[in-house]
Amino acid sequence: MAGFGIFQDTIDQDVYKYYADGEWKVSSSGNSVIILNPSTRQPQYKIQACTQDEVNKAVQSAKEAQSIWAKTPLWKRAETLHKAAAILKEHKESIAGCIVKEIAKPHKDAITEVVRSADLISYCAEEGVRILGEGKMLVSDSFPGNERNKMCLVSKIPLGIVLAIPPFNYPVNLAVSKIAPALIAGNALVLKPPTQGAVAGIHMVHCFHLAGFPKGLISCITGKGSEIGDFLTMHPGVNCISFTGGDTGIAISKKAGMIPLQMELGGKDVCIVLEDADLDLAAANIVKGGFSYSGQRCTAVKLVLVMETVADVLVEKVVTLMSKLTIGAPEDDCDITAVVTESSAKFIEGLVDDARVKGATFCQEYRREGNLIWPLLVDNVRPDMRLAWEEPFGPVVPVVRITSVEEGIHHCNASNLALQGCVFTRDINKAIMISDAMETGTVQINSAPSRGPDHFPFQGLRDSGIGSQGITNSINMMTKVKTTVINLPLPSYTMG
Description:
The strands form 9 sheets. A 7-stranded mixed sheet has the order 16-19-20-15-14-22-23, sandwiched between helices. It has a 6-stranded mixed sheet with strand order 11-10-9-12-13-26, with helices on both faces. The chain folds into 2 domains: about 5-265 and about 470-480, Aldehyde Dehydrogenase, Chain A, domain 1; about 270-445, Aldehyde Dehydrogenase, Chain A, domain 2, CATH 3.40.309. It has 14 helices and 28 strands. It is an alpha/beta fold.
């Protein structure tokens, strides 16, 4: 682990420690979890396999620390967050190096993720001061039948302990998008990082540790989902869960108690291309949206619904741009790198095989070596094919040819996944009407789906999520309303 400098404290005999009560610790289980490098499919890192008892202790420490943190002045909370952001940015190279090895994200994109995460923390600190520094006063005589003898003071207070569970594809950014709002709002935070991406998450947490947050306020619990997954999400000490991932989120929502849930699950993000669209713009966004980070993004373009009259031209333009994509190692900043696990690669191959058997048109020869899958555009996909509905989470983009806008909208709204969508047209009236008809959390007009900027609201419908993210929405969601009513004597006079 040479070259990691300050991060040496996080490792013990080649196994990364977990973080609780302000210290880096070795689990009493004596067990570890192996993280495979997606590119080589060889062991890269090991992390602690924490026990349920260690979860209990972390939650108890968080509870004690939160009661003190909630009383910490808002400006001081913000100041400490700014310090964490600066430390994170200072060590972007080391953290990005872990991202490259753990999830095969291209190096330049890994650096961007860390810098973006630091910027998110700083923005969150400022936004938190603005939101939480405001209160509201209501007077009673604005409601019929009441005198002006009551004053209601309304403020926002923390929920308590927030459990944050980010996904593998943005192990730092989607962790801090949960951590920073929770902390500025006065909460404690328990992080359960994904297995792939856990070491980058550990290094990110160490930056918060160095920033000087109170002992016990932040925990980073690693381990096997089978051992501590349900135990964490059903823990009576947890007051809020913020989760980003796949179907696991649906199971969590059914098991969690009466606590606020913020969940961003899967997406089958459709791209509707009309006859009057700028086809060069649409093609560029389909390639960028469909193949960035090998399609392993919840907001990736996962289905193109194109009007039949322009389909041939659009497909040709997309194929031409795809031919320029580079395929290979993340260290070389290639556009297409290995998908995260062998099981992911096999799942994607299953979708491709199904489309082939049912008569889809392959615009390139399907090719796979280990976890590395070459980018593939699949044309003439029909509704009876799995690719029309299931989320590949890989570098495969299906094309469905439609004969009317209504057909495209119907297909979009028939999906159980409804995160984002996009529409390409030069007619702003059509764009707004189609956006209004699409039952998705967000619709992008003349651009591929995207989660950012990070202060924009971000949410899904149906099986794509619960609640809304984005910095402002997350801060509000991780607080509760507190009212104090001042009862004054009834006035002893009447107005003449």
